[in-house]
C-alpha cells in the first residue's frame, strides 16, 4: 500500500423514507429526568451486556476511532429520532432523502442536533456547515426544511462561531448507551452544547464532538472531565480523546502519541504532513509511518495497528461479533 490520503470519505446514502419514528424512550425532559451527579466515569445505569459497559470493563482503547469526515452539516431538529435520525424524525419526509443525497454529493456528513430539553416549539430552524480541517463552523437559519436543498453548503453563508461547540451523542434510537450516558452529560455541560445523532463508536459512550476542530472524545464523565475548560484554553484533553475527525486512523493515532510524548496540547499543534504504509505482517499487523509538523521541525511517528485477539459484539444492536484495531507506538522522533 502506498502513501495514504489524510482525508476520508464523508456523507450518507439516500434512501426511501421509512415509517415515522416512534417516541424515543430515552428522550426525557429535564423536569422528569433524574438530576445529574458528579461522576469520574460515564454516568447511567446499564446492564453488563451493554456495549459501553463491556468496553469499559475490557479497557478498550478509543485511540484513532474518530470518523474520517472533514466537512459536516448540522441540522437542528428537536423531537424523537429513529435509527436514521434524518429520515426518521419530524424533519420534512419529502426533503429528507433529497438532502441526504445532496450532502453525499457535496462530501458532507449530516448530524441532526437539538438543544438539551428542547421542544419542537423552541426550535429556531438553525443549521450549520463545519470544516474541521480549516477549523470553522458557520450558522444560518431556515424557515422551511426545503430551503436546505438550495442554500450554499460550502460555508460561504452564515455567521461564524469562534467559541467551542460541543455535540453530545444522545441518539437512543441508534443505541441505548448513547442516550443513557449522553443525556445527563449534555444537561451538565456549560457552553454551546447540543445533543446530536450517531457519531459512531457507541461502545465509547458518552461521546462528544468538539467543533470547529473536530476532536472527538469518548467515555466522558458527567462533569465533562475538564473537556470544556481545556477547549476554552485552546487545548485538547488526552484522557478520553478518540482522535480528530477528518484524519485517517494512522494519522489520528500518530498525532495522539506525539502529543503524549512532547506535551504539545494546542488544538492546532502537530499538523499531519504525511501518512505512509510500511507493509503488514501475516497476523494482520499493519506498520505505518506518519510525519507531523513540530515547532522545531518534522516529527516522525512509527506505529503498529493490530487486530483484536477475539471478536466481540461492538454495539448493543450488533448481530455478529467483530474485531477491531488497536494502535501502538513504536517510536516518536524529531
UniProtKB/TrEMBL annotation:
Please tell me the species this chain comes from.
Klenkia marina
Q: What is this protein called?
A: Sucrase/ferredoxin-like
Q: Write down the InterPro entries for this protein, in alphabetical order.
A: Aim32/Apd1-like, Thioredoxin-like_sf
| Pfam families, sorted | Suc_Fer-like (PF06999)
Renumbered residue ranges of the record's region Disordered: 1-45
